[in-house]
Amino acid sequence: MWAAAVGIFLFSWGPVFVRDNEFGALPFAFWRVLGAAIWAVAALYLRGGRLDRRVLRHSLAGGMAFTVNAITFFTAIKTTAVANAMVVGATAPIFLLWAASKVFKEQISFRVIVATPVAIAGMAMMLMGRSEGTGGGSLSGDVLAVVAVFAFSGYLIASRIARNHLTALEYQAGWSAVSAGFMLPISLLSFDPLIISDAWSWGVAGTMAVTAGMAHLMVNYSHRYVSLRSISLLNMTAPGLAIMWAWFLFDEQLGGLQWVGVPLVVISVLAVVLDE
Length: 276
Hints:
about 80% helix; globular; single chain
């Protein structure tokens, strides 16, 4: 449980620093995942493991899902308010539980059916209130954040399945290597330069490669020991923490409707994960 909690905490402040650099969204996503892959693969070999076909096969789905999540979420962070992107992300446990019911044959409760439209209503209020705040929200960024929710849910489910076959370190090395392979051509096709001269931005990318990589490793390690319900509940705390970091560092504020929408999203998600 502590591994999952620390991992979620590291997730919470990462998106804030995605904005605080000169990289474009896709180049930053590439260098972040490449850095994470380098240290994970090195650690795997130092421990006597191998990045072989078995590891890559079981890591493929998670790596592909994470690539979609990284592209959409990092672009959203660059184009909308951190508060918007993270609170939209707070609905991930609901979609995750719906999907998990199909994969893991979990029963869907009546509370899930009730809470889902409530969360969607809260999300809509938050998006409609984006113009009232001073966080620089945008509709396109908000839509990308919604897509990122589904991709991240797919990543968590794929990770839980992969952990039945791989150790946490094997999976960390596998999915990050797969994602880096997909991200390179996508980044090269973007309009943003892959190489820049800003030292601070390289420092941020390097820091994120380590901290975010460790966050993923801790959460994926916990899949074998912590229920999906508990991981979903812990994941819900990340948006609130991210909003605090954004307020402190970038003076982002919430508009009137957002003050109503945020609690609706959080309460509905909390009701679902506690019920499950």
